[in-house]
């Protein structure tokens, strides 16, 4: 051997392999090879001092202290029942709180969409003044480029109101063909 002092032998009684990069156990302070450096692999008698697991609440991600002799599952269950902020049984904050003001519509939205003219709150489908028959003051809202009489007489076709991929481009084509 060229380097007889290089490396150390594994402290595991059944192994004794010469390892050039041994790992020293931080609990028992002995040298081990890559196969026996874990506490369980060399049955470390001092592992209980170092190998401490702290359970974490699955709901609020808070570490929960466990005393010696206590079962971690029971302690976490008690935390969820008493102290947990994210308990599923507790009242949750409602997300869809803004109800549509259009008569007959029961849809609710996450964000408030109020009409600039009548200040009513509407869903996505009824957010435009023409879609919810907006009346600003006593005068009905008219379509652009039409007199109040022709606006009330002309109704857009069913294709105009459908929302599909490219629906905006269909609406624009519709209006350009009407104006030309």
TrEMBL record:
Domain AN1-type per the UniProt entry, residue ranges: 4-52, 94-142
Gene Ontology MF terms: zinc ion binding
Keywords, in A-Z order: Metal-binding, Repeat, Zinc, Zinc-finger
Matches recorded under Pfam families: zf-AN1 (PF01428), zf-C2H2_ZFAND2 (PF25403)
Record GO biological process: proteasome-mediated ubiquitin-dependent protein catabolic process; protein targeting to ER
Highest taxon of the lineage: Eukaryota
GO CC terms: endoplasmic reticulum
Keyword Zinc: yes
Protein name per the record: ZFAND2A isoform 1
Highest classification ranks of the organism: Eukaryota, Metazoa, Chordata, Craniata, Vertebrata
Gene that encodes it: ZFAND2A
